[in-house]
Input
Amino acid sequence: MTLSIRNQITGTVTSLTAGEAMAAVKVRLTGGQDVTAAITTESVDDLGLTEGSEVTTLVKSTEVSLATGPLQGISIRNQIAGTVTDISTGKAMASVKIDVEGGALTAAITKDAVDELGLAVGSPVVALIKSTEVSLATA
Output
């Protein structure tokens, strides 16, 4: 299956905390970062997820925000450090490619945000991704 989702990084499930309708699934990515996905318990069952399951994390580029450093006092669970490798800008929007340990991410953000953050190739950034915006896939 080919997907339009740019951000696909493999990892291993390290823990599952299931509630009535939703579950928090922690995944250790190939590069060693931890990511939390909030998915339905039905999806956990459908995918057959258990600790040790190999998964691919999927995140649309429009769901990746960027900061110039780690943030404290924020509810966003996933903060992945990386380095900007490419910026393509249009009149209003920009596509920012980021090299992270074990993979790459793309963030679709406004051109104004790129300018205000002073982003350039080589800039260190932190990708911010809400756990509810992380999907999981199995082979």
